[in-house]
Known about the structure:
Layout: H1 3-19, H2 26-36, H3 42-62, H4 64-73, H5 78-109, H6 112-131, H7 146-157, H8 166-176, H9 181-206, H10 216-241, H11 247-266
Amino acid sequence: xxxxxxxxxxxxxxxxxxxxxxxxxxxxxxxxxxxxxxxxxxxxxxxxxxxxxxxxxxxxxxxxxxxxxxxxxxxxxxxxxxxxxxxxxxxxxxxxxxxxxxxxxxxxxxxxxxxxxxxxxxxxxxxxxxxxxxxxxxxxxxxxxxxxxxxxxxxxxxxxxxxxxxxxxxxxxxxxxxxxxxxxxxxxxxxxxxxxxxxxxxxxxxxxxxxxxxxxxxxxxxxxxxxxxxxxxxxxxxxxxxxxxxxxxxxxxxxxxxxxxxxxxxxxxxxxx
Length: 273
């Protein structure tokens, strides 16, 4: 196995794990880092799908007791049933819009200028949202109703645009709709399981011709680093949101987006689609 390839797999795994649940866009970072590592061909795109599954497993492991209880007790406990129903409702908008517009979006919007622009726009939206006064109507995930879930699901659908950030859209959207920071963040984690899981399985099915036993070592390394970094990130983010705003992520997005636009405009880096 090529050691350089394994190193690239480890780097991309760390990038995926750290950015999947932060409001800074994992897709955007993988597009840009994959370009810098010269690992952005069809094989590289399939690899991104594979390591995304490890980030989902990190959430499942962190919330294994809560998820297990919800699945087992859904038929007899209202809170468990409501959680599962709300996650299903929130998943639908992105699923439907992704099936309808997914191919067009990938063809026209998956490029460095768009990613950089959405990085900057997303940062400005976060700053605007943080300046608003928030009326916390929903303190915990258990307090959410189906309409809250649908609103968060509609917000998540904006993540179909690369660079937007799925977690950023759902967390900030949830806060604007009256969820507390912790409730919005935890619901984002739960919503990631069907959203990324179904999207990953669908993508693997479409790209099944690229599956190769020779890539197992690369996948294993990428998944391992993705799982570890995502697990650390999930635990850290829950503690962080209890005492901090998201302004630091907003400024990161703006600065990073400007750097990408500058390097693209000046021709210093050839950012691939």
